[in-house]
Amino acid sequence: MALRHKAYKTTLDKGQAYEWNDDHIHDFTDELSEQLLLLGPLITHNWDTAQTSGGTAPQWSLVSGHSFVVLNTGATTDNISSMRNKLNNVVSNITHPDDLPILTCAIQIAAVHNAAGVANSVVEFGFQDDSDALFTQNLHFAIFRFYNGHVFAVTGDGVAETETDLGARTEYAMYRIEILSSSIKFYIDDMVNAAATHTTHLPDADLTIKFSVRSKNNIDSTIRLDGVALTRLRKV
Asked: 32-233 maps to which CATH number?
C-alpha cells in the first residue's frame, strides 16, 4: 500500500484531526524508513566501493565547512568512481519493486563533461541491481542519468528501457525516485509534481542503491553527495 494524505500542508500551516486520521497511517508493518547517514560512520560501513575503476573511491570531504561524500574520477577517460549500498557488511540487493521503495537524495554536480549521447553518460544513480555493470543500457533499474548537459529519467526491465529528457541539469538539486505498483515517478526539487512518470519498461528484480560517476574525453568528473534516504512502502 502507499500512504495517502487528505491534505497537503505547507510549513507551519495548521490542520484539523479529521484531515489526517483516516489514512495518515504510520505503522512499521506498512512502512520502513531508513536514513543512510553520510555523516558519522565510515563510508565502508554502509557502502561498497568495489565497482570503482581507475577513479578515486568515494570519500569524505569538507567543502566550505559542508560535509559531502565525494565521487571523483580523475582526468582519464572512462575512469569510474562508484558506491553501492550493502547490508550487514555484505553487498546485496536491499529492496524489490513490490516494496514500493522511494529514494531521496541531494547531489551537487561539481564537474562533469557534457558529452553527447547516452553512450557518453557521465553520472548515473538510483535503484540498480547490485551486480550489474555500470553505465550499461537495458538493465533492471530506475535511475537518473546525465549526458549532454541534461538529466534524464530512465527505467529498464532487463530487455529495453524508457528514457525521458528532464532538461538542463543544475549544480545542486534534490532528486527522488518513487516506485509504485504500475508506474515510477521521478522528481527534481519539486517533490509534489513529478518531472516524469514512466509506465513502460519497469524493473521487476531485487535492487540496491548506486551512485556512479564516469570521466569522458579526459575530463575529470566529480559529484558531491549530500544525503540519502530510503523508504519502503510494503504492498499489502
From this structure: 2.60.120.200
